[in-house]
Amino acid sequence: MRTISGLYSILLACLLTTLPAISEDFSSNTLPKGWKVAVGSWKVADGVLVGSEQPADHHPSVLLIPDPHVSSKIHFRLRFDGARAFSLSYNHSKGHLARLIIAKGQAMLQMDKDKNDPESKPVTLAKSAFTPKPGEWVDLGSTIKGTQFTVTLGDITLTGSNPNLAKEKTGYRLVVSGQSVAVDDLAIESKK
To answer: CA 72 to CA 108: how far, in whole Å?
Structure first.
C-alpha cells in the first residue's frame, strides 16, 4: 500500500510541476484577468490576441502579463500582420531587464540598459538572421533558467548568458511596433 501511495505522490508532484501556470488559447475572446494594456491596442478577436501600435501614442504597443518568477518557460505562436518589430520583454522590480527583439531581418537576445545608470548600455547576448513571413504563424519558445536565456523561433535557436538574468522577474511584456501581430496558444511555466 505504501508503494502505491508513494508512486501516486510522485506522479502528482510531476504533473503539478509540468502543468503551465498560465495557459491561454484566447477562445473566450476577452483579455485574460490581470493582464494590462499599458500602451496601444490589445484585444482578443476571432480566438487570437492582437496587438497594434497606435500612431497617436508615439510609443510601441505594450501588454503586461504579471507572473513573478526567477526561472520560466513561455511558449506561443506569433504572426506578423504588418508590424515592424516585436519584443518579448522581461522586467524586474526596478525596470527593464532583458528581451527578445525581432526587427530589421534579425532576432536578438539583449540585456537592457539600467535606466538609473547613465553609463549603462544594452548588451547583445545572441543574434541571428530572421525575417518573419507576413501572415504565417511561427512557434516562439523562451526559457530563462538561472543565468541562461534561450529562445527558439521557428527553426532557429538563440542562447545567451548573463549573471543578472538570475534576478526575480515581475512578468512579461509583449511589445509591438507598427501595424499588428497576433498571438495564440500561449503557455507559461514558472518557478520562484
So the answer is: 19
